[in-house]
Amino acid sequence: MSTIYVTGMGPGAEDQMTAKARNILESCRVIVGYTVYIDLIRDLFPGKSFLSTPMRQETERCHMAFQEALKGQDVAVVCSGDAGIYGMAGLIREIGKEHPGVKIEGIPGITAASSGAALLGAPLMHDFAVISLSDLLTPWETIERRLDHAAEADFVICLYNPSSRKRADYLKKACEIILRHRPAQTVCGIVRRIGREGESHQILSLGRLKDTQADMFTTVFIGSTATKELDGRMVTPRGYRNV
Ligand code: SAH
Description:
The chain has about 240 residues and is an alpha/beta fold.
């Protein structure tokens, strides 16, 4: 029986891919993924057969993987970060119901929330909520409700998909909702292109974040009321007493 390995490749840098993910990619002859991610790893795995589709063709990409697996070979489906976090692991398992002859295995990777947090300092030391601002698969009203409740409950909030060309003002709208519950001086962080060329990070207030332009390779961190700036880093206290 052949296996599809749904593999998280980490944020992008070669040394941020787990050894297990690397071994899996080395062992599969066929690697399937979104064009941008395939381009990041193509040179690391010479001799592989790479199959890619552009963004938003996730279903086609999954079917492609099953077609290859049904030929009797193991296939790796790669996603950035962790494949089980806004990645392809769910869709592969749903489509997998039609293909009982193919085994599916998930290989975890470092998600943008952890790699971004390490760059900023220690923002996720206490309870946090992860919310995607992409309304391609979730109605905007649902996203607004989640932002409002997470802000009200004083979670640190990590935003994935904060913006795209069609959704240029979504980060601004999200900040306005959070500002209903949190002061404008709340410590926030923004990380761009983690593990890739042009990587950068910045710490700024919620008031300034509202007027900042993000793109699709950006992850945003909004502090809780306990988060502070310490030596230029964003830190949320763990809550240990007497520290
Ligand atoms: N599966 C991925 C998330 C895919 S959703 C993961 O676990 O990280 C795409 C969003 O993830 C982007 O819009 C951005 O918010 C975040 N992201 C993924 N890779 C990133 C990187 N290298 N640098 C900054 N943000 C990234």
